[in-house]
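The freezer alarm interrupted the setup, so I double-checked each line after restarting. Inputs confirmed:
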Amino acid sequence: MVTIKDVARLAGVSISTVSRVINDSKPVSPEAREKVLKVIKETGYKPNDVARSLVTKRSYLIGVIVNNLANTYVAEIVRGIEEIGKMYDYDILLCSSYFSKEAQQKYLQLLDRKQAEGIVLVGYDFDDEIIEQVKNLNKPYIFFTRNIKNNINYIGIDHFSASYEMTNYLIRQGHRNIAFLGDFEERSSVEKDKIEGYLKALQENELEYNMVYTAGGRRYSHAYESGKEIVKDINNFTAMVCSNDELAIGLMNILLDKNYKVPDDISIAGYGNYQIGQYVRPQLTTVGEPFYDIGAVSMRMLIKTIIKGEKSISNVMELPFTIEKRNSVKKLDDNKK
Amino acid sequence: MVTIKDVARLAGVSISTVSRVINDSKPVSPEAREKVLKVIKETGYKPNDVARSLVTKRSYLIGVIVNNLANTYVAEIVRGIEEIGKMYDYDILLCSSYFSKEAQQKYLQLLDRKQAEGIVLVGYDFDDEIIEQVKNLNKPYIFFTRNIKNNINYIGIDHFSASYEMTNYLIRQGHRNIAFLGDFEERSSVEKDKIEGYLKALQENELEYNMVYTAGGRRYSHAYESGKEIVKDINNFTAMVCSNDELAIGLMNILLDKNYKVPDDISIAGYGNYQIGQYVRPQLTTVGEPFYDIGAVSMRMLIKTIIKGEKSISNVMELPFTIEKRNSVKKLDDNKK
DNA sequence: CTGAAAGCGCTTACAG
DNA sequence: CTGAAAGCGCTTACAG
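Predicted 3D structure, all chains:
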């Protein structure tokens, strides 16, 4: 491997001078610069970032801890993180923990040892111990989670309002009996917000019927399975808003497989605007969560914090959401109940 | 930040001794070890991997260059890469190039400077210049691509056989007129293999009809759009095998949207076994490509090569595929043509 | 504008 | 079993 020493020797200058031309950090005479550049080109010299990192104490590395990259929304967030990172010359050290607290702890240690300059954590819920550990790392961090705990730096959308607006949209479409399909029995903070938004809309419209089902999980299969029971109550409501798109599609499919028609027999709304919602038929009406932007904004805040030399990010930021109107929701005639 | 020096001073030993207990690299007296361990615990000392990396010349970093993480199959491959990496204590430096050759070049440089020990490249096609550059890096690398060029290290499945078997399956289901939906006009090596497998099956069964359409791309929208034309020929064939699942679903949806029934009016087979194929209705019959395994096996080969201190991986490996029989393909009655 | 020197935080022969 | 010393490949005051 050719090092800065070799370049200096070959160019007949000191390593200081070589360093200066590489980094453009201080004035160098045109002649010296040219000689150095020539040698660099000839030898194919590339500075060793590890050595540089050791002396500058800058790694330009951001650790990103996710549970599962195969979730499309996670990939979207990571995409946002990466794009912004690239703009500022930061690189991503990717860590998938697959919901294991031990893996998360191990990665946190690792990121510390590798001198990562900041950490982004993406996941449904994080253990208090993990949160504590992140804080103790004493570097900037930011969370994207469904269970927002006290004084965590968080970026996302206003779930109460989103759920409220979606429910209102269904009401405007003529629905009077609207149920909600949640994820876990034990509600995360975000889940609570969604349910409150849903209830608020019903209440404001003086609708008496309300019903919160739980799928027992967040995945397609959870909704597909629990849907087998829910289907028995299907005459009680004409529409259902689901806590996420996977649940919505799982529910839609069990209904379809049991020969119900969506949206003719029942309207379904999702939450998240996962890519797949546009691929299924009927296409899914859903709340648009700007995952890419969430990643991008998080990363920008993180990098700004790092650059300013601060240790922690103060603000909790809420991004705008959208209501994606597609055709899993039907407008009810007035004569129909 | 507490360094090895601080630990040494506090424990009353030399930094050599501290290093030895951290790395368990040489015998240390129990008393010394205990003192050191105690100080480490008290101070929360964590070794700086950057410094360590500089002297050991080992980064334990593998660069992974992908185009777009949001493609589920890419995420699957990365998942395999990461899991195996974790087993060997290697970390992933993630680089998404979004099909930009410039970005790929930039990342290659970066990975070199960061002293990555190996590189995995995942993408549809790579420019010759990129391939050359990868080789010049003089570190182990491996490709997953759809356009396999001479002496590239590649891991994947036998596409000729997979396509051949899928076509045969359709034939066994009673289909006589089977068309193929390819991606680009200009065929990649893998695309050629698929088409040859398709033609071989037809030929062996003495079926005269054959027809290769092209979608002009690999995404859902390409098939959805080109499907508008293909639909005009729909009476010519009873089944279609598509070059990937996104195309299959795009085609399926345009047919559905134009009120054709799948599989009653036409059977559709995909390729890849993307997660989404199980979410759509009808569920997609498809070729199962073991993306997770492809990532895992690639990574294992790469790491073995690194550990053995070799510069290049010799073998090209083919992994087993499956035929996922779901219900987008219908068995034709004998009386029906 | 330039170079010699110190130093970043480690590991590892080497000598004892 | 232990420590002093050299060195990994850089950057950056410092002095000129």
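Quick read of the result. Residues 64 and 85 of chain B are 11 Å apart (CA to CA).
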